[in-house]
TrEMBL record:
Species: Pseudomonas fungipugnans
SMART domains named among the record's database cross-references: MeTrc
Record keywords, A-Z: Methyltransferase, S-adenosyl-L-methionine, TPR repeat, Transferase
Protein name: Chemotaxis protein CheR
Residue ranges occupied by any CheR-type methyltransferase domain in the UniProt entry: 1-241
Taxonomic path: Bacteria, Pseudomonadati, Pseudomonadota, Gammaproteobacteria, Pseudomonadales
CDD domains noted in UniProt: AdoMet_MTases
Presence of the UniProt keyword S-adenosyl-L-methionine in the record: yes
PANTHER family: CHEMOTAXIS PROTEIN METHYLTRANSFERASE
Key word Glycosyltransferase present: no
Extent of the TPR repeats: 350-383
InterPro entries attached to this UniProt entry: Bact_Chemotaxis_MeTrfase, CheR_C, CheR_MeTrfase, SAM-dependent_MTases_sf, TPR-like_helical_dom_sf, TPR_rpt
Coiled-coil blocks: none
C-alpha cells in the first residue's frame, strides 16, 4: 500500500470522503501541507504523527475540507422554505416551533440565512428554531463568532446585510436576534445514531455532501437523513444531487431552483442494473461542437473542449489551454496528467473537473465520470456541458427522470447565456 493510499483510507474512514470525487491531487496537496507544518521529514513520519495525534487528524481533515459558502446561496431555496414553513405551521396548528436542521453547516452562512429568511418573512422567534452541525470544530467555532468578511456576501441583492449585520473594523457582525435562533454543534453524518434522541426535523438542508461519497456511503448517509427528516418534511440538497435522491425514493416538490425533495408514496425503486460499457471506438479528433442529445448510450459523445479561460493568472491560463489541446488531440493520459498538475498548483475550477469527467467517460469509467461531473456542478451549478454529459450517463443507466432534470437545467442555462449575449 502506498503512503498516499493510507491517507485516502484514513479520510474515507473518518469523514466518508471518496477520493475519486475530488481527485487524489487535492488530498495529496493537503498531506504535503500538513507534513511541512508538522515538521515531518517524510510521508511515513507524518503518518506516525497523524496516528498519534487527534489534533493532527482534525487538522488534516480541515486542510481537505475547504468550505465554499456564502449567505443566501441558492436564494430560491430560502424563498421556498418561507412558503413551506407557513403551510407547515398551519398543518401543526402552531402547536410547536418548526424544527430546521442545516448540516454540514460549515462556517454558519446557511443556518443563519435560514433564520434571516424566516424572520424577514414575518415569522416570530418562537415559531422556529434552527440547528447547525458540522464535522469541523474549527468551522463551528467560526460560525459561533458570527463575524464575516466580504466574501460571505455575494450576488446583487445584499440588502439583508443592512438589516441584520453591524459593520466592524474587521468585518460584519451578525445581530444577536438572528444568532439566538440558531444552535451550533459538532457532529458527523456517518454516525448512524446522530441526533438519535431528537425528534425529526420539518426541514433539513444537506447541500453538496453526497457528491463526495461513494455509493455505499451515499446510501448510509441517506438513511440517516431520512431518519432525521419528518415523514411530512422536506429535504433541501445541492444542484448536482437530485438524481441521487430520485434513486433513493425521494421526489422533487416541483419548484424550480429550490432543490427540495420529499418522500414518495410509492415503494422505493429497485436498484439499477450493473452498467457494462461497450467496446470503445478508435479515438479521433473531435469536430462536433454541439453537445449531443441524451440517448441510451454507454457514455456521452465527446464534444470539443473550449479553450476560453477567465483566469487572470497566466500560468493557470497556460495549463487550462494545454489541457484543452491535449484532450482535443485524443491524448487522454497526457490530458489527465495536465489536470492533476493544475489541481496541485491552483484552486479547483469546474472546467478541470469537467475535463476529468469527460476523459473518464471516454475511457468507459462511468462511475468515476459521474463523480467528476458532479464535482464540476458543485463548483458551477449551471455548467451546461457537465449537465449534458451527466444526463447522458444517467440515461444510459436507466435513470430517465434524472437525465431529464439535468437536460432541462442545461437548456435553461443555454437560454440564460443567449439572453446575456443579446443584451
Amino acid at each position: 500500500m502506498s503512503s498516499d493510499q493510507r491517507f485516502f483510507d484514513f479520510l474515507k474512514e473518518r469523514i466518508g470522503l471518496d477520493v475519486t470525487s475530488v481527485g487524489p491531487a487535492i488530498i495529496e496537496r493537503a498531506v504535503r501541507q500538513r507534513t511541512t507544518l508538522s515538521q515531518a521529514v517524510s510521508a511515513d513520519e507524518y503518518w506516525h504523527i497523524l496516528q498519534g495525534s487527534r489534533d493532527e487528524q482534525q487538522a488534516l481533515i480541515e486542510a481537505v475540507i475547504v468550505p465554499e459558502t456564502w449567505f443566501f446561496r441558492y436564494p430560491e431555496s430560502f424563498a421556498t422554505l418561507a412558503k413551506l414553513a407557513s403551510k407547515r405551521l398551519a398543518e401543526i396548528n402552531n402547536m410547536r416551533a418548526l424544527r430546521i436542521l442545516s448540516l454540514p453547516c460549515s462556517t454558519g452562512e446557511e443556518p443563519y440565512s435560514i433564520a434571516m429568511a424566516l424572520l424577514d418573512a414575518g415569522f416570530k422567534p418562537h415559531q422556529f428554531k434552527v440547528e447547525g452541525m458540522d464535522v469541523s470544530p474549527l468551522s463551528v467555532e467560526k460560525a459561533k463568532r458570527a463575524l464575516y468578511g466580504k466574501n460571505s456576501f455575494r450576488g446583487q441583492d445584499i440588502a439583508f446585510r443592512e438589516r441584520h449585520f453591524t459593520e466592524e473594523s474587521d468585518g460584519y457582525r451578525l445581530s444577536e436576534r438572528v444568532r439566538e435562533q440558531v444552535r451550533l454543534q459538532v457532529g458527523n453524518l456517518l454516525d448512524p445514531a446522530l441526533l438519535g434522541s431528537e425528534p425529526p426535523y420539518d426541514f433539513v438542508f444537506c447541500r453538496n455532501l453526497l457528491i463526495y461519497f461513494d455509493q455505499p456511503t451515499q446510501q448510509q448517509v441517506f438513511e440517516v437523513l431520512k431518519r432525521l427528516t419528518h415523514v411530512d418534511g422536506v429535504l433541501f440538497i445541492g444542484p448536482a444531487e437530485g438524481s441521487l435522491l430520485g434513486r433513493f425514493g425521494m421526489r422533487s416538490i416541483g419548484i424550480a431552483q429550490s432543490f427540495a425533495f420529499h418522500r414518495q408514496a410509492a415503494p422505493e425503486p429497485a436498484p439499477l442494473p450493473a452498467f457494462v460499457p461497450t467496446p470503445l471506438p478508435v479515438r479521433q479528433p473531435v469536430r462536433n461542437a454541439v453537445p449531443s442529445p441524451v440517448r441510451s448510450r454507454p457514455f456521452a459523445a465527446v464534444s470539443p473542449l473550449p479553450v476560453t479561460v477567465k483566469s487572470a493568472n497566466p500560468d493557470a491560463a497556460t495549463l487550462l489551454a494545454n489541457i484543452a489541446a491535449l484532450a482535443n488531440e485524443g491524448k487522454s493520459a497526457e490530458a489527465r496528467a495536465a489536470c492533476d498538475l493544475y489541481l496541485r498548483s491552483h484552486e479547483p475550477v469546474a472546467q478541470v473537473f469537467y475535463w476529468l469527467g469527460l476523459l473518464s467517460d471516454v475511457a468507459g469509467s462511468a462511475l468515476q465520470a459521474q463523480g467528476f461531473y458532479r464535482k464540476a456542478l458543485y463548483l458551477e451549478p449551471q455548467h451546461s456541458d457537465a449537465l449534458m454529459h451527466l444526463a447522458a450517463l444517467l440515461q444510459s443507466q436507466g435513470d430517465t427522470a434524472g437525465a431529464r432534470r439535468l437536460q432541462e437545467r442545461a437548456a435553461r442555462s443555454e437560454r440564460a447565456v443567449d439572453s446575456e449575449r443579446k443584451r
